[in-house]
Write a structure and sequence with these properties.
Layout lengths: L1 H44 L25 E7 L5 E3 L16 E6 L5 E11 L2 E10 L1 H51 L15 H48 L3 H25 L12 E2 H12 L9 E6 L4 E2 L3 H18 L3 E9 L2 E8 L29 H11 L3 E6 L5 E8 L5
Parallel strand pairs: 7-9
Antiparallel strand pairs: 1-2, 1-5, 3-4, 4-5, 6-8, 9-10, 10-12, 11-12
């Protein structure tokens, strides 16, 4: 648009100067033609019988008889015997020299200039230098007025052309703007394909993007399917390993049986960990979600209270305002489930859940009255496969998955010692955009 404005303004300015120059040139041409005709008429009025320049009658234009009237004539004897002038010249005289015939500009007493024509003629035995002139100020003023008229006209024309160019540009870019909004909706997960009618110039791009989306979706589905096939394919070998361990135990080889069972359990845990990670949703930088934190907590607590470990615990939910967090519902349920299940596993009698808002972040705190973790080991929590207590079954991958979820969604997790002596987990998640 800026380039179009420069082109339009530049073209109109150049055109304005060109038209002004042509107009002034045309005025000067007309003035020269009039002066040439007046000079010929003046030559015809010279008295051939007199050595001193004289005219036999006046020129028809009354401006010759008006002091500084705008039209002037002068007849000068080449031999210096005298000079005749129009009344309009008053007390001034044009300066002419031999060989200076043709057009020139002469100053006037009022500060203006006159465009003059000079011709040397022979009448009888006498030679005269005949000059006629016209005040150039009239031509200059006419050029100025014409220039202002052209400027106003071209300014209006520039606004019309620039407005039309802006409208054309907006109209031409509307399909690209719709395409941008559609791509944004794809990134936000509102739609899966670019839809709508697009011009033929844009449609190939739309088809290519839709093809890319289809290929990406197919690759993701294929990857998840392969992971699922791998998990199902490993179930039979893992079951066989458990069977081998049972037979070894029946034969009294307790040590070998326990080693095989530990290996099989570790493999099962690793497969489960990768399957759960594969179900997480990869987030783009500008994809936005909105999920109720309180709803996820209440639903998870309701489920855990019905489990064997959870039914003997006292659950305290100190929830503030219902906060909408920027995370997919399934990922939030996974995150809340992992952390609350971990607390219920280690708690002796109670689990406390709190939520609050801190600036642009939602803070979700879970604490229990279990045995807790020594402060020097808190930094190891959340690492893959890190187990700080072997007294209860587990793989230590739950908090690692929670960390993965938070990394994908711009959140953070921190561990501390709870007031009741157990573990305190603080989770921070960005709030969803309002409106």
């Amino acid at each position: 648009m800026g380039f179009a404005i420069l082109l339009v303004v530049g073209a109109l300015v150049l055109s304005g100067f060109a038209l002004h120059g042509l107009f002034v040139s045309n005025l000067e041409t007309n003035a020269r033609a009039d002066l040439d005709a007046a000079l010929s008429r003046l030559v015809a009025l010279i008295d051939p019988e007199q050595a001193e320049p004289r005219v036999t009658g006046p020129l028809p234009d009354p401006r010759y008889e008006t002091p500084l009237g705008g039209r002037y004539w002068q007849i000068e004897a080449v031999d210096g015997s005298g000079v005749a002038r129009s009344r309009s010249l008053w007390d001034q005289q044009f300066h002419t020299t031999d060989g200076a015939d043709g057009q020139s500009f002469q100053p006037l007493s009022d500060g203006h200039e006159a465009i003059v024509f000079t011709r040397t003629v022979e009448i009888g035995a006498h030679r005269f230098r005949v000059t006629v002139g016209e005040d150039y100020e009239d031509i200059r003023l006419a050029g100025v007025r014409y220039g202002w008229d052209i400027a106003k006209l071209f300014a209006l024309l520039a606004m019309v052309i620039i407005g039309a160019a802006w409208g054309q540009l907006r109209l031409g870019l509307m399909p690209l703007d719709r395409l941008r909004r559609s791509v944004d909706e794809v990134r936000k997960g509102k739609i899966t394909r670019l839809t709508g009618n697009f011009p033929s110039e844009v449609q190939p791009l739309v088809d290519q993007v839709n093809g890319l989306l289809s290929e990406r979706e197919a690759l993701v589905d294929r990857g998840r399917q392969r992971a699922s096939d791998l998990a199902h394919g490993l179930k039979t070998p893992l079951a066989a390993l458990h069977g081998i361990a049972m037979r070894l135990r029946d034969k009294g080889d307790e040590q070998q049986a326990e080693a095989i069972e530990e290996l099989a359990d570790e493999m099962s845990a690793r497969v489960d960990y990768q399957m759960r990670l594969a179900s997480l949703r990869t987030r783009s930088g500008d994809r936005r979600e909105s999920t109720s934190l309180n709803s996820a907590v209440i639903r998870t607590v309701t489920v855990l209270r019905k489990t064997y470990q959870g039914e003997f615990l006292h659950w305290m939910a100190e929830l503030g305002d219902d906060l909408q967090v920027d995370i997919h519902r399934q990922d939030l349920m996974e995150l809340v489930g992992i952390t609350l299940e971990n607390a219920s596993k280690w708690a002796h009698s109670k689990v406390i859940v709190r939520s609050r808002q801190n600036g642009e972040m939602a803070v979700f705190e879970i604490s229990d009255d279990g045995p807790g973790i020594p402060p020097k080991l808190l930094g190891e929590l959340g690492s893959r496969g890190a187990r700080l207590d072997e007294s209860l079954p587990g793989t230590g991958l739950g908090l690692a998955i929670a960390t993965e979820i938070l990394v994908l969604n711009g959140g953070s997790i921190a561990y501390n010692v709870a007031e009741a002596g157990g573990l305190a987990v603080e989770i921070r998640l960005p709030l969803a955009e309002r409106g």
